Amino acid sequence: MAIDPNAAGGNGTDNGNQQPNPLTTRQGHPVYDNQNTRTVGPRGPMTLENYHLLEKISHFDRERIPERVVHARGAGAHGYFEAYGTAGSEPVSKYTRAKLFQEKGKRTPVFVRFSTVIHGGHSPETLRDPRGFAVKFYTEEGNWDLVGNNLKVFFIRDAVKFPDLVHAFKPDPVFNRQDGERIFDFVSNTPEAMHMVTFLFSPWGIPANYRQMQGSGVNTYKWVNADGEGVLVKYHWEPKQGIRNLTQAEAQEIQALNFNHATQDLYEAIERGDFPEWELCVQIMSDDEHPELDFDPLDPTKIWPMEQFPFLPVGRMVLDRNPVNYFAEVEQVAFGTGVLVDGLDFSDDKLLQGRTFSYSDTQRYRVGTNYLQLPINAPKSPVATNQRDGQMAYHQDITEGSNPHVNYEPSSQNNVTEAKRTGKDHTPHYNAHLVRQKIPRQNNFGQAGERWRMFEDWERDELIRNLVNTLAPCKEFIQKRMIELFKQCDPEYGRRVEEGLRQNSGNQQKGPIGTTQSQDAVDQAEQNAHDAKPY
């Protein structure tokens, strides 16, 4: 719902016969003068008892919470998910007992946050970067968060490498600028990243906007049915608006005019009633090792072949309402990969296991211990816990009729009790040593080479151009290592990067990934500037 600036109180004036709402302090006290502080005479010093000033300024000093380490720049919208009741041509209950999927036409409210990953909250939305695609389902059984990206794969397969990955892509800790040499220094020693690098440096690394991009859960999850039987599952959002990407040159032209273009595009599309829509599809695989594949199905750097594991539509999502307050909704919304409802479960994907701790832990630090009491994060189903207090506790999770003196379980004094099971437990069996080892079927180059060969000619040209521009200023030993990795993906892939670097050997301009004239911009700012006299 949009705020009407002409509504009573919207602009602080009396509109016709409508009496504006009086301005108050946070304590509810009327504010009779919001223009002048209390001073000794009109020119004298202020006094300490200026409570309205102190409250107003002290709140202003604290009106930002810590920015997300990743996914800081975001936009969001409300909508609904409508289930088909089927997975492809079969009843969805064959695979999962999750209630939101069972009934055809059943609608579940959702909130979606789109984002860029690496740079800060006001960075341009045209930068080469993965895009976050996070969906919060407010189901009748509590919240489900499906937290993913626009690309279907990731750089790493073990969560222990996530801080290193992000540090390599973040600005240099000394001169505070993104540096392709740091990125390729890391990637050249992390061959599992080649599949993701091939996507990122192609036009797929800069989606045209949020409405016209895919989404993916990236990690492998599980579905569990009423009998406790589990299957592996991957989630994919397919946009009904089509998929559109930008070249580096096109993105830089847009950035010169508007660095908020994707946020503006999403908001204005919804305002005019052009509601964006995605179809949710799943790929399903039996829960075993699948020796017939040349990769491990739990590996998030891999795509499951569609010809073997087809996309099965299970529902559609429509975004039809913009946020009223960006901070309260888009900034404070908190997602976690561990937020699952009954019938959904975790796989043994190492990256997923680490994300499951990290994401919710981040929200407790960033937003606060009671972040789940905020309206945007609170489930719409009843909440009854024995968790109490903590910073900014708005209420206690006490249900009507329960004993407020009892905040523990078990108890014989009319307090909350364990819920009844809705189906058999899923009980996978393990028989292995506890080790620190890589997965055996890594195949770091096969799918990256396939992707290279599947690209259209213009996409391959753009990929080589962006890689060469970013690699050219790097040290020679980093270039050589990367060329060898590209050749293992596909000989032509490596050869074209090698030839491009040979032709671009004079380019020593370091800058954001894909750019070519970062130093020229520095020089132009000085040379083209206009003199001004001091005043």
TrEMBL record:
Residue ranges, compositional bias (Low complexity): 1-21
EC number: 1.11.1.6
Cofactor dependence: heme
Alphabetized CDD domains for the sequence: catalase_clade_1
Reaction(s) this enzyme catalyzes, per UniProt: 2 H2O2 = O2 + 2 H2O
Superkingdom, taxonomy of origin: Bacteria
A Pfam family hit: Catalase-rel
SUPFAM superfamilies: Heme-dependent catalase-like
Gene3D superfamilies cross-referenced by the UniProt entry: Catalase core domain (2.40.180.10)
InterPro entries: Catalase, Catalase_AS, Catalase_clade1/3, Catalase_core, Catalase_haem_BS, Catalase_immune_responsive, Catalase_sf
Domain Catalase core as annotated: residue spans: 24-417
Classification via SMART domains: Catalase (SM01060)
Keywords: Heme, Hydrogen peroxide, Iron, Metal-binding, Oxidoreductase, Peroxidase
Biased composition (Polar residues): 22-39, 403-417, 502-527
Chain's role: Decomposes hydrogen peroxide into water and oxygen; serves to protect cells from the toxic effects of hydrogen peroxide.
Protein name: Catalase
Species assigned in the record: Flaviaesturariibacter amylovorans
Taxonomic lineage: Bacteria, Pseudomonadati, Bacteroidota, Chitinophagia, Chitinophagales
Gene for this chain: katX
